[in-house]
Amino acid sequence: MYLCREDVFSNMMEVIESLMSNVNRIKDEIKYSSENRSEELLNFIEKEILKTKESINELKNPFLLFVVGSGNYGKSTLINALLKDNLIDTTDLPNTWKLDIFIKSQREKLEINYINDEKKILNLQSGKRMLKEEEDKYKQSKKQVSRELKVYKKNTPNLDSMKEYKESLEEKYLYKSNVSQVKYYIKNDTILNDFVIVDTPGLNQNLVKGTIDRMKEYYRRSDGVIWIVDAQNIVSKVNNDIIDEISMLDSTQITRKNMIAVINKMDIIRKNKHEDIKKIKDTVDEIYKDKFADIIFISAKEAINGILKNDNSMIEESNIKELYKSIDKNFKEVSEINQIDSKYTNLHIMKNNIKDSITSYKRNLYNDISRYNEAEYELNKSLNNIKYTAIQILNNIQYDEYIDDINLYLLKNKVKEVETILYSSIEKTYKNLYTISNFSQIEEKDMLDINLYFTKSKNLIIDYKEQQILREYQYKNSNQIESLLNKFNEKKSKNTNEYEVIKRKIYSKKIDALKKEIESAIEDTLIAIEKSINNTRDKTFESKYLHNKQIKEHLKYINNIENILNDMGC
Predict the structure, then answer these.
(1) With 249 labelled, which of 179, 360, 452, 525 sits at a CA distance of 20 to 30 A?
(2) Which ranges form a coiled coil (predicted)?
């Protein structure tokens, strides 16, 4: 057993508001971009919630009651009786050129819609005057057709030709209003509390296309149909045509519309013999019993007169109260159950759609979080490996191997070899780290440019001052050897050793400085790589989701949404 619409609306809106509260908290965390998965999820969830909210809001709206009947069957009088107010002017001319929609409103007004989709809003009195002018134009054109036809009839008694001539006259003179729809916004606490009433001409009438399209649309949306029949004309081609029209419209619907047949003008039948009433009821039952949810026999004229005069006996005689009860039972109660059921279905669809999207999102997010952590581990491991490799290579540079070559040619070649090996290793490592750390499909423009130029080091060059020192010791040693070869043999050996010591000292100092320079350059490069990779990983992850530090809080709200959906029970 369902709750009433108000309670269902309140319960459903509580769920919607709770979901939106968590969505709005997530909104503040996201850095929007063209490929942000968190934004995509949020937009999808929000769209589903708002779509469902719009559907739930329909629980506050009145149902749509569709009134069908041919001209002169008392349709306008019936609507006045339903409204309990003499709102619509009743005339002998059938209203065949527009839709009338009656809506409850605290501000009374009349909205006139035209076939070109323009509209005009007026107060009730001004609007009704304008519509009367349209009716008067129609009456005058109708009179002109009648005059022309009367003259033609005197001269040409042939019925077939007269029918064709009448159609040509109507095409030529009959006024066709460009008003297609009129909405009456009125203060009314009767049937309009639960229904919007759509008073429509039959599809068999000569209507403009805009009116026919609107009529079909209202029928599609309607929650019930009142089909009015003149008790004096139960069996007629017009009635059969309207039945065919309703069947045609119903064939486009998933379920058949609930319909009530209202047999009007029973007051006229009562003036005759009671046998006629029984005969009419038997005929109606035989023809229409399988086509309608209920059949009510009334006098709309007696109903509205009794209401206006506050004459209860006339109201009872009209049988209008039975129609009120039938509308409640067959339209309001049934529509309420169907509508609530429909809203629960929509809520269930929203629940499954959102849960499926969250499941897919979390699967991808968890995979990328794992990848994020693996990328951080791989970065530290790779940088340490490069440092170890560099130390091993530098330790292989021995002093003695390069001491004897004053132009450092061998050392320079070795340094070039070291430069090539380390550059290749660092570049390959950086590209690999960049690939596993980039969560975006677009390559970053600020990708680091790796440069190693060890061979340009000043420590591979003997500068002028150092050359002077070496030449000085070399020249001094050479002269002493020549002049004191015999006398100062011991001194000569000492000077020769002194030259070698100075030479070794200078070269050793340069090699040590070169090693430190290479170590420093590698350290700076690795620091730059670490910064670049960390920046790429954080920036692209944030671009795809949000900042890594916000993930825990982010997932809390995502889980809240899932829990709310799981607790819905639909």
Answers:
(1) 179
(2) 124-155
